[in-house]
Design brief:
Layout: H1 3-15, H2 18-25, H3 29-43, E1 48-51, E2 54-57, H4 59-83, E3 90-96, H5 100-113, E4 118-124, H6 127-135, E5 141-146, H7 151-160, E6 163-171, E7 174-178, H8 191-194, E8 199-202, E9 225-228, H9 231-241, E10 245-247, E11 260-264, E12 271-278, H10 285-295
Parallel strand pairs: 3-4, 3-5, 8-9
Antiparallel strand pairs: 1-2, 5-12, 6-12, 7-10, 7-11
Helix pairs in contact: 1-2, 1-3, 1-4, 2-3, 5-10
Length: 303
């Protein structure tokens, strides 16, 4: 099995098409197909499932590709260091639910790192995709929360994916809404107060369920609901539609002035925010720095 074959497999997985991958790699389709089949025969597994619609990665293939990406990343570091004569390029990747504080901590990480050459990756995405990214070594770690609603299912999924969850801190539920919202003057809110207004939820793709939701109390029906996948849009919808969302309450004011506020929600629930990593894997130096930056946002830190 060669480095080139690993590159072929990753390209096919990323494009979802042998034809498209062959174009990108400047190969003929038959040559690429044969190379993939030879690699599958050598590995003793089917990396891809083929159909008229294209190719999809099998469960065994996903694990294989996770290791292949690690090999390719290390090979690129070797080439940079010893063949190109360049300083070592440091890599670090995070997948996270849509939290402002995870982005802020990532910015602080980059500032603290301060070297000339690096390849950093920050992906705000759905809960299931976070687990897939970490399982397949696309990301070094993933940030998500556990709650009474989702803990049993998510812990089962985390265990099946051979990952581990490490808690960072707990946060009480808050309602995010615009300062001009009719409920903005209340000291605390109940779920019943929110019923007349649109609820905003982040899209989870094929995993639209209570268990993979980023928002608390998804099991409580809402008469008006808007699903979106952009954190900037959610702020605009709060301001323009008197909409709301329920999250941790950790929301730096300087990002949007005083236009968005967080009101405590008086309901029995807690968010346990933490990170997931593959079993047996230790935090890298950059991982430790990033976790230390995240811990600065612990709402109980200054309590």
């Amino acid at each position: 099995m060669t480095i080139q074959q690993l590159k072929y497999a990753v390209a096919v997985a990323e494009t979802g098409s042998i034809t498209e991958a062959a174009k990108q790699l400047y190969l003929s389709q038959p040559s690429l197909s044969n190379a993939i089949r030879d690699m599958e025969a050598e590995a003793g597994i089917s990396i891809f499932s083929r159909s008229r619609a294209g190719v999809t990665v099998t469960k065994e293939g996903a694990e294989f590709l996770g290791y292949a990406r690690q090999v390719l990343q290390q090979m690129e570091l070797l080439e940079d260091r010893y063949l190109a004569g360049l300083p070592r390029k440091t890599r670090f990747a995070v997948s996270t639910q849509h939290y402002t504080f995870t982005e802020n901590a990532f910015v602080d990480l980059v500032k603290r790192f301060g070297q000339d050459r690096y390849a950093f990756y920050f992906n705000e995405t759905g809960t299931h995709q976070i687990l897939e990214d970490v399982k397949n070594r696309v990301s070094d770690l993933g940030i998500l929360h556990l709650s009474n609603e989702n803990e049993a299912v998510l812990r089962k999924t985390i265990e099946e994916d051979r990952l581990r969850f490490f808690p960072l801190f707990s946060a009480s539920p808050h309602v995010f809404l615009s300062r001009d919202h009719p409920l903005a003057g209340k000291a605390v809110l109940r779920l019943a107060d929110l019923q007349p207004y649109p609820r905003l939820n982040f899209v989870q793709g094929d995993y639209e369920s209570v268990y993979f939701s980023e928002e608390l109390f998804r099991s409580v029906p809402a008469e008006k609901e808007i699903r979106l996948n952009d954190r900037g849009a959610i702020v605009n919808f709060m301001i323009g539609l008197q909409a709301y969302t329920i999250s941790s309450g950790i929301f730096p004011r300087y990002l949007h002035g005083d236009s968005i506020i967080a009101v405590p929600l008086r309901e029995e629930e807690q968010m346990q925010i933490g990170y997931v990593m593959p079993e047996g894997q230790e935090l890298s130096e950059l991982g430790r720095i990033y976790i230390s930056e995240l811990k600065k946002y612990d709402p109980q830190k200054d309590a």
